[in-house]
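Whiteboard transcription, Tuesday session. T.W. wrote the C-alpha cells on the left side:
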C-alpha cells in the first residue's frame, strides 16, 4: 500500500497536492517521494507509491486472524481528516520501511509536522486528485490517493501547460494503520481507488513501490499490477532508496499482463488489436 509514493505502500509538499510531473525514468530524485505511490520529490511528508504495509490476512506474529473492529466505509477525505491521515501515514512508514530506510529518519517522523503541512495544501489540491479514507467505527484506518500519472513516458504532455487530457492514472499513496493490516482495509481502498481511476477515463494505472518491500509488492501483484521495468532511486535521510514502477490495465484491453503497457497516445481501446 507503499513507497504507490504504505503503495504502505511514502519532503515539503505532500504527495497529493498538485503533483508535479516526475522526471524521466531512471533518475535520482532530490528528496523522498511517497514510497510505493510515486511521490513529489523533496518533501518530508512523502519520502516515497511503495504504498504501505498491505493486507496479509493473518497476524503471523501472534498466530491469529485480525478481524475488523466494525463495518468499513470508504469515503472522500475531508479537511477534518488531515490529522488522522497523517497519523496513518507516519505510522505506516515507520512499520513498512524498517530496514529499508534509515531508522533515524523513520524515528524522526512527526505526525504533527506532517499534519501541519498537509493542512496547508489540502484546499489547494488539484481537482484531478482524489483522496479516499477508510473509516471504521468512526476512526480513519486507511488512506489512498489517485490522480493523473506524472511520468512523461506514460503521460505524454504532462509537463506542458495546459496539459492534454491524461489517459493514464497513478496511485500516489495507499496506507493502512499497522494494527489493521490483514482486515481488508487495503483491498477496499485499492478497489475504490481503481474504480475512481476507471471513472476518470484512465486506461492504465501506475504506481511506484520501494524495492525490497515484499509485502507491498505481493499486494499489488494480487491486485493485478506487474513491474514495467522502470526504476528510480531517491535519497531518504542521506541513503539511496530504489523503487520500481508497476502498472495494470483498467479495461479488458490487456488481459495478458506480461505484454507491454498500452500506448497512452492511442485513441484505440486496444491499440495492439487494431487492424
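and on the right, the sequence the group agreed on:
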Amino acid at each position: 500500500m507503499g513507497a504507490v509514493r504504505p503503495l504502505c505502500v511514502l519532503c515539503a509538499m505532500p504527495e497529493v497536492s498538485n503533483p508535479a510531473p516526475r522526471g524521466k525514468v531512471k533518475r535520482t530524485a532530490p528528496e523522498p517521494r511517497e514510497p510505493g505511490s510515486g511521490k513529489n520529490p523533496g518533501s518530508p511528508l512523502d519520502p516515497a507509491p511503495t504504498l504501505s504495509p498491505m493486507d496479509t490476512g493473518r497476524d503471523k506474529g501472534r498466530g491469529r486472524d485480525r478481524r475488523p473492529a466494525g463495518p468499513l466505509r470508504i469515503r472522500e477525505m475531508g479537511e477534518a481528516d488531515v490529522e488522522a491521515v497523517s497519523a496513518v501515514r507516519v505510522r505506516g512508514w515507520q512499520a513498512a520501511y524498517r530496514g529499508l530506510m534509515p531508522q533515524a529518519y523513520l524515528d524522526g517522523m512527526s505526525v504533527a509536522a506532517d499534519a501541519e503541512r498537509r493542512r496547508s495544501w489540502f484546499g489547494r489540491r488539484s481537482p484531478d486528485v482524489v483522496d479516499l479514507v477508510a473509516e471504521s467505527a468512526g476512526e480513519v484506518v486507511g488512506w489512498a490517493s489517485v490522480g493523473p500519472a506524472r511520468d512523461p513516458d506514460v503521460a505524454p504532455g504532462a509537463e506542458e501547460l495546459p496539459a492534454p487530457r491524461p489517459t493514464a492514472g497513478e496511485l500516489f499513496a495507499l496506507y493502512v494503520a499497522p494494527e489493521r493490516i490483514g482486515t481488508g482495509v487495503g483491498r477496499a481502498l485499492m478497489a475504490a481507488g481503481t474504480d475512481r481511476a476507471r471513472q476518470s477515463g484512465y486506461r492504465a494505472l501506475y504506481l511506484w513501490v520501494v524495492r525490497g518491500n515484499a509485502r507491498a509488492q505481493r499486494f499489488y501483484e494480487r491486485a493485478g499490477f506487474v513491474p514495467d521495468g522502470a526504476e528510480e532511486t531517491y535519497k531518504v535521510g542521506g541513503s539511496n532508496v530504489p523503487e520500481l514502477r508497476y502498472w495494470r490495465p483498467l479495461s479488458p484491453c490487456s488481459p495478458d499482463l506480461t505484454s507491454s503497457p498500452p500506448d497512452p497516445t492511442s485513441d484505440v481501446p486496444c491499440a495492439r488489436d487494431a487492424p
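Someone added at the bottom: Residues 30 and 145 are 22 Å apart (CA to CA).
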